[in-house]
Design a protein that fits this description.
By secondary structure, this protein is of the alpha/beta class. The chain has a single domain, classed as Glutaredoxin, CATH 3.40.30.10. The protein is 38% helix and 20% strand. It contains 6 helices and 7 strands, in the order αβββαβαβαββαα. The strands form 2 sheets. A 5-stranded mixed beta sheet has the order 5-4-3-6-7. The longest helix is centred in the N-terminal third of the chain and has 17 residues. The radius of gyration is 16 Å and the shape is globular.
Length: 177
């Protein structure tokens, strides 16, 4: 029993080292179009949790993450919104259209030219997928890049646990006045 508690503590500490680099800061604003030129704005998501995913159509981990996000939509309904961001010129309406169809994506995918991604991640390149959990007040509550210590976020139930923590906090859902 003691070994299990120590192992769990070590795992949580290791995960903390590899996640949350941008936690606690205000999410940068954006207004980005999808393939049909419908614009999505961060302000549209005030009052609910937003899962913001940076995705690439030919990314195997992104394909593995799509069913996790589908389960999140089913579990949380309107309490949680999901928005994916693809970067041009790597991805375009055709590559993302195929990705959406092949993976039965039911949430919007918008297009960025790298500026928005940089304002979030603060790096010139990232490994996809990369996910931000933004609370109802527009504060980044956590962020995760795919890696050995965050694999459960992208392939297991770790994301649901992180969302539950945000939902259970007092400040997550009511916009500040």
């Amino acid at each position: 029993m003691k070994i299990m508690r120590i192992s769990a503590s070590l795992l949580l500490c290791a995960a903390a080292l590899f996640a949350g680099e941008q936690t606690g800061r205000r999410a940068p604003g954006f207004a980005l179009p999808d393939a049909n030129m419908k614009v999505y704005d961060l302000a549209d998501y005030r009052g609910k949790i937003l899962i913001l995913e940076f995705v690439q159509a030919d990314c195997g981990h992104c394909v593995d993450f799509a069913p996790v996000l589908s389960r999140i939509r089913q579990k949380y309904g309107d309490k949680v919104a999901i928005l994916a961001v693809a970067n041009t010129p790597h991805d375009n309406a055709n590559t993302i259209g195929k990705y959406v169809a092949d993976n039965k994506i039911a949430y919007p995918v918008v297009f960025d030219q790298g500026q928005m991604e940089y304002t979030y991640v603060r790096k010139l390149t990232i490994d996809n997928p990369y996910v931000f959990i933004i609370d109802g007040n527009g504060i980044i509550r956590d962020d995760f890049g795919y890696g050995p210590f965050t694999k459960d976020m992208f392939e297991g139930n770790g994301l649901a646990g992180a969302i539950d923590r945000v939902l259970n906090s007092n400040a997550s859902m009511a916009p500040k006045k």
